[in-house]
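Format is sequence with structure; example below:
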Amino acid sequence: MPEISPLYAGLLALLFLMLSARVSAGRYKHKISIGDGGEKDMVKRIRVQANCAEYVPIGILMLVLAEMQGMPGWLVHFFGLTLLTGRIMHAYGLGSSPQVPKFRIWGMYLTVGMIAVTALSNVGHALF
């Protein structure tokens, strides 16, 4: 039974809720019910939230499966922190006005790197 990865799943869910609250606040501010209403600010808020929704589930899944297959606890923490840090950096970099490209880029490096390494770990463990 996973004991470490639920911590990161919970923290990433809280990040997603924070990003969702920013979308809701923007909707209230701009009086927009559906879509972005042509507001650049809303486009950015929606994309930051959507990007989190696109990458976090597969990252959490890879982390949980790696932990279930016996990945050492310190590595589960390492990869959980890598995903969390990457998602925070990306949200900050993309969500800032103006954007902060180095945070956005490094956030994606950390996110994609974590997913790739844990995916390969899961495949390797399943095969060997």
